[in-house]
Amino acid sequence: MQNNNDAIHKKTILHVADSLNGGGAEAVFRDTIIATESLGYINHVYVSDGKTSFMSYIYSMKHKRLLLAELKKLKPDILHLQNFYHYLSPSVLAAIKIYKKNHKLHVVFTAHDYHLICPNSGFQYFEGGLRKNISLQRGTFRYLRRYDRRSVAHSLLKTAQHILNYKFLKNHQVIDDIISPSFFLKKVFSLYNIKTNVTVIRNPVGLQDLNTDLKDTVYPSEMVKFVFFGRVTEEKGLFEFLNLLNECFTISCEVHVYGEGTELDKLKCLKFRKEMSIFFHGFQKRDDIPNIISQYDIFILPSLWYENAPISIIEAAKSGLPILVPNYGGLQEMAKLTKYHYFFEYENGITLPHQIFDAYKHRHQNYILDEEPFSMKFYAQELNKIYNLNSPQAQDFGVN
Fold it and tell me: Where are the domains of the chain?
């Protein structure tokens, strides 16, 4: 006679996302597959071809048809959905909805951003050319805003996708359980009327020991070395932070940037005081980052948006680097999970030198207060609990 664990191990999961390759959300997608394999689940993967058009971005008939065919062929017990709105489009939710009419299927969604409640996945809008965070108070959301800086047309596309799929068709109701990597995102979902069950499970992080020796603590007298790694895009705030650092911090410093993105050319054109330099190192394999960044003094992630749960903060802390970030969102939450974290405000740059001096005193001394929630073993165990919940079908969760 089979025991319950044997039955669980024979369950089939279909993992669905825009892409298998990349960092951030894609890394979590790959880790999810690895974790479920370790639990004995039978895994299948459905990803896009990386192509889109104006119409398919709003609603892709192709991926609706192809995913429905895949569901009918595989008959999975669980569908684990991650980022899907760039290429697959929310039409995949419609395919799932059709399939669930005649088949039992537990749908789990890992939320990497704010897409379910806002046309701008960063929970931001643009006014007068300025990037602004949407208020965390309920009732302040408005569709009649610009949600993409590139053009009005791009903004209208994002808004049309959101209204059609979530306000009109309400296909998001197929989601049974939502996984949030941060309590902040869970709170925002609640504030914006998401009624689906939301469980916080931290994204797994490779926390291997580093082959580096801790250095002595020295008060900054000649040079402070900052490091950033990740996507070099507008919302990451490097342009604004570098200007702030140039204006209010007089001690010699270097800023080392690891990564690629649309803001590189803009950053390379910046001019600084003679005591400040910036170096661009390009893309680096994520596995190599911990040992590379351990040679620097302070890790910076000056994002302008309410980051969800940036694992780069945890990776930097494991490398011993104090954390310097703005005091909001998932940035604040993740930084507080490390011993030495420091906050600054863009509106009050006068406090930045003090935070830098304090952070420098603890260079190469930082650590994660509790590593267990970031381990692959813990992640797999928490996924297993979610997969075996007897969740009722999700209720409606529109934006007020």
Answer: 4-203+375-387, 224-372
